[in-house]
Amino acid sequence: MYRSEIKVVDCSIRDGGLMNNSNFSFDMVKRVFQAINASGVDIVELGYRNSKEFFSTDEYGPWRFCDEDNLKRVTDGVDRKVKIAVMQDAHKATAEDVLPKSESVVDIIRVATYVKDVDKAIHLANNATDKGYEATINIMAISRELERELDEALQQIEEETKISACYLVDSFGSLYSEDIHYLVHKFQKYIKTKEIGIHCHNNQQLAFANTIEGIIKGVNYLDGTLYGIGRSAGNCPIELLIGFLKNPKFDIRPLLKVIGTDLIPLVEEIEWGYRIPYMITGILNLHPRDGMKQMDLPDDNPDKYKFEKFYELVSGDDVW
To answer: Residue 26: CB partners within 8 Å, gap ≥ 6?
Structure first.
């Protein structure tokens, strides 16, 4: 689907970093950056700009903080066409973590928030735009939010920010096409002066399909990752998205190359993608943390593949 307003965002390093505490090598991140830049993808998110007050630098790698020196180390010397983004969690970051735009290689600050923290998100987003950046607000776990509170948050975001886009985020991979239709219409009701974005997880193998549903309904900011890398079941594979869009500005070949050189070998170290425990948390609209614990059990643990037992454990008696 060709539409000039569409912006494709690669989140491989940021979302994939949730599976290895953001401990990707500098060489790999540089190759990913170069591939995304060469592909024509609009935006590449290279990690978090979260506060060292909340995360230990001994436990978490450089892409949890995206210090300017580290960003320059992987982006310098590249004829840059792609915009660089970093993410701030509304409840794990501070305004002081963001330099003025004139002192940074970053172009876009993406603020992730739950509805209950929308005031914090608005503060961080306004801090970013006041300092010269583009900004987005990404509403996480939207499948668990109360209707009235979501409406109020969207109204606040529309009235109180100058962000480029407001995202609906299917954090638990629990939404179906009818849910995407309903939520996009809701966003369009309140968000009048900004674009709408979508970020889908693949617990039920619907991330790509739901992203397409968003496009059909007018969503213009689209998130994806190389080979679907991301927390638990992962994300919409960006190579599928590029193949679907049929926009001549994109070149899928650099993406396929870096998947072969870096993502396929990484599967030996990090396990992501569709798995039964993640499917179960998806259909139950639960955070995938329990599924991740199940997947982390040793292969010789007799309970690892007792999926019916896992289902009963996480569902309770009142699941439906």
So the answer is: 62, 70, 73, 74
Cα→Cα distances 22→13, 160, 272, 298, Å: 7, 32, 14, 23
**pLDDT in the model for residue 4:** 78
- Within-domain flag for 249: yes
- Please tell me whether residues 51 and 131 are part of one structural domain: yes
For the chain, what is the domain count? Answer: 2
Would you state the pLDDT for residue 53? 92
> Confidence class of residue 2 from pLDDT cuts 50, 70 and 90?
low
Q: Give strand pairing partners of 8.
A: 222
pTM attached to this predicted model: 0.96
Residue 319 pLDDT level (bands cut at 50, 70, 90): very low
- Does residue 79 sit within a domain? yes
The C-alpha R_g of the chain, in whole angstroms, comes to 19
Q: How far apart are CA 57 and CA 55, in angstroms?
A: 6
Residue 1 sits at the vertex; the CA angle it makes with 251 and 182, to the nearest 5 degrees, is 125
pLDDT at 317 over 60: no
Q: Is 87 exposed, middle or buried (0-12, 13-18, 19+ CB in 10 A)?
A: buried
Structure tokens at 257: 């190359």
Q: What is the mean pLDDT of the segment spanning 110-136? A: 98
Q: Determine the residue type at 250.
A: F
Under 8 Å between Cβ of 168 and 198: yes
Positions of E strands within the chain: 7-10, 43-48, 83-89, 108-113, 134-139, 165-170, 195-200, 221-224
**Within-domain flag for 320:** no
Q: What's the pLDDT tens digit per position in 230-239?
A: 999 999 999 9
Indicate if 251 and 229 belong to the same structural domain: yes
Other C-beta atoms closer than 10 Å to the C-beta of 98 total: 22
Per-residue pLDDT, averaged over 168-173, amounts to 98
Does some domain include residue 2? no
